[in-house]
Each structure stands twice: as C-alpha cells, then as structure tokens.
C-alpha cells in the first residue's frame, strides 16, 4: 500500500493529519515537485485521476479523494473515531466536512487557481486539457470565502469543535482550508473570533504539523 502525497498542497495534508491522529504509518511518496506547482509527469501518466492524494492498495486498487481514503482507514481502524461514533455523530461530522470542502476548499481554490500566474491554463485540478483562468471566479471565490468564515464562526461560537465536543475530520478539512486561505492572503476576519480561537487550538495539535 502506498499514499501519493504532495507536501505543498492542501488536500493531501487532510490525509496526512488524519493518519497522524490515528497513528497509522504507511509508505508515502511525493507525487509533485517541492518547489513548483505541478505533479510529476510519470505520476500523471500512471494515475488517471491526475490528482493527489491517492491511495494505491497492494492489489493495485486506486482510491482518490481525501475523505474516501480516510473512510478506508476509519473502517479498518475505528478508534479513535474521527468520522463520528454513532449514526447521529457520523451524519453531523459528514455534514460539516462536506461544507468545509465545498464552501471552503473549493472557494479558496477558485481564488488561488484563477489568480496565480503559475496556474495559467490550469484553472481546474486534474484536467489533462488546458483550462483557462476565469478572473471573475477570483472575486466570486473571495465572496464565498467570506460566507464560509461567517457560517463556521456561528457554529464554533457554541461548539469546541465543528461537529460538537469531539475533534473530527470536519476539523481537519477546515484547518487545511483556513491555512490555504491564509497562504492566499485571505486572513481570518476580525469579525470571526470563534474561528480564530478554534484555529489556534487545532493548530497546536501535533498532527497539524503534518
Ligand atoms: N476533492 C479532492 C481534491 C484533490 C485536489 O484537488 N488535489 C490537488 C492538490 S491540493 C491536485 O492534485 N492538483 C493537481 C494539479 O493541480 O494539477 C480530494 O478530496 O482529494
């Protein structure tokens, strides 16, 4: 089994943090360059999803998508539960994790991929075809990031973690979203003190260094 990673990218970090929290140790290989924003040609040629993270099982099965990889390990190693312990918890964790990805990660990615010169013609991750940047998506993405911060601040005003009183994959994805946003220059707004409090707390976990 091997995990294809890319240490400078936000989505593979979700899996690295998850594995660290679970104390799961597997072989990891860098699929991208450390100093330029492209995946290596031999990786792209061999793996049709053309994105990372990617888990390849010993029988050759390829599992793409960060949460699908986490789900695989969560089924094998249920404790500590990072995807909820019972039906209600699982639904709440998945709800916040999906909102973090769709309303946070996708929005920050729109800003990033449509504004950076190094992503010219690479507006969509994983596309083998050129995808021109759309400048209007930068503005729309920034608006969406603002909505994301406000919504998550409201949730964190009454909860230690996103899904309640237990750390979960919803917190992992949200941490990766916010650190990516900060990298892009979208700081936590002053109007979102509960996001700032939560961010300081989860950033102090050893797994956050992953
Ligand atoms: N929804 C996917 C997102 C994967 C993704 O977009 N990965 C980026 C790195 S953060 C990638 O592989 N980009 C390849 C590229 O830009 O060519 C997941 O959860 O794994």
Question: Could you please describe the fold and organization of this structure?
Answer:
The chain has 210 residues and is of the alpha+beta class. It is built from 7 helices and 4 strands; from the N terminus they run βαβαββααααα. Strands 2-1-3-4 form a 4-stranded mixed sheet, with helices on one face. Strand 3 (54-56) and strand 4 form a beta hairpin. Helix 1 (10-22) runs antiparallel to helix 6, helix 4 (87-113) packs antiparallel against helix 5 (136-156) and helix 4 runs parallel beside helix 6 (169-184). The site of glutathione has 13 residues, from helix 1. Glutathione binds at residues 6, 9-11, 39, 51-53, 65-66, 122, 125-126.
Gyration radius (Cα, Å) is 17 Å
Poorly predicted sequence stretches spanning 5 or more consecutive residues: none
Going by CATH, the architecture of the largest domain would be: Up-down Bundle
Here the CATH topology of the largest domain equals: Glutathione S-transferase Yfyf (Class Pi), Chain A, domain 2
Termini, distance in Å? Answer: 20 Å
Q: Which CATH class of the largest domain applies here?
A: Mainly Alpha
Overall pLDDT score: 97
Number of domains: 2
- Strand fraction: 5-15%
Strand arrangement, largest sheet? 2-1-3-4
Beta strand count: 4
Helix content: 40-55%
Largest sheet: 4 strands, mixed
What's the overall geometry?
globular
């Amino acid at each position: 089994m091997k995990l294809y990673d890319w240490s400078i990218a936000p989505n593979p970090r979700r899996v690295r943090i998850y594995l660290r929290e679970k104390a799961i140790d597997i072989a990891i290989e860098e699929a991208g360059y450390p100093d330029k924003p492209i995946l290596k040609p031999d990786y792209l040629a061999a793996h049709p999803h053309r994105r990372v993270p990617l888990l390849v099982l010993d029988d050759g099965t390829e599992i793409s998508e960060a949460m699908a990889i986490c789900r695989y390990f969560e089924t094998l190693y249920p404790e500590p539960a990072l995807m909820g312990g019972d039906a209600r918890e699982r639904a709440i964790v998945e709800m916040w994790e999906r909102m973090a990805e769709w309303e946070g990660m996708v929005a920050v990615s729109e800003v990033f991929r449509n504004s950076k010169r190094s992503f010219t013609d690479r507006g969509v991750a994983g596309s083998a075809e050129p995808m021109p940047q759309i400048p209007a998506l930068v503005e729309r993405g920034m608006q969406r990031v603002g909505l994301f911060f406000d919504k998550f601040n409201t949730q964190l005003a009454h909860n230690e973690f996103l899904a309640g009183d237990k750390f979960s994959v919803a917190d992992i994805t949200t941490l990766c979203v916010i650190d990516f946003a900060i990298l892009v220059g979208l700081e936590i707004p002053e109007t979102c003190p509960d996001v700032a409090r939560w961010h300081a707390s989860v950033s102090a976990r050893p797994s956050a260094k992953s």
